[in-house]
Amino acid sequence: MGWVRVCGTSDVPAGEVRRFEVSHRPFAVVNLGEEGFRVVDSICSHAHYFLDEGEVDVDFGTIECPKHGSTFDLNTGKPITLPATQPVERFDVKVEGDDVMIEVTDD
Ligand code: FES
Questions:
Q1: What DSSP line would sit under 24-86, residue for residue?
Q2: Tell me: the pLDDT tens digits for 12-56?
Q3: Is the CB of 68 inside a 6 Å radius of any atom of ligand 1?
């Protein structure tokens, strides 16, 4: 698929996360303010719950799953705390003008 637009830069307030779909696939777009945007799979790797309904910690660059409380590193997608043990997929991000773009590979 290559680089695709996932949302606009003003669609996600600083310190927050929103869910957007591209080709029927949900992505969690996080705005870390001065640190920029991070995008990970919207679905938690533990029990198929929406990660984007969780809390973002801008200082640590993490998001906490609201279902069972696993915290994920937004730079790597790896879980920092249990019960999740598998990473969520993370995507390369770039901002072009007012657009947040992510690189999605077909697999
Ligand atoms: S569903 Fe996310 S930690 Fe269980």
A1: TEEEEEEE-GGG-EEEEESB-TTTS-BGGGSEEETTTTEEE-TTT--EEETTT--BSSSS--S
A2: 999 999 999 999 999 999 999 999 999 999 999 999 999 999 999
A3: yes
Name the residue with the closest Cα to ligand 1, atom 1: 47
Our answer on whether the CB atom of 28 is closer than 6 Å to any ligand 1 atom is no
The answer, as to whether pTM is greater than 0.85, is: yes
Domain 2-104 sits in which CATH superfamily? Answer: Rieske [2Fe-2S] iron-sulphur domain (2.102.10.10)
Between the CA of 82 and the centroid of ligand 1 the distance, in Å, is 9
Going from N- to C-terminal start, the domains of the chain cover: 2-104
Could you tell me how far CA 25 lies from the centroid of its own chain?
Answer: 13
* Residue with the two structure tokens 């307030």: 13
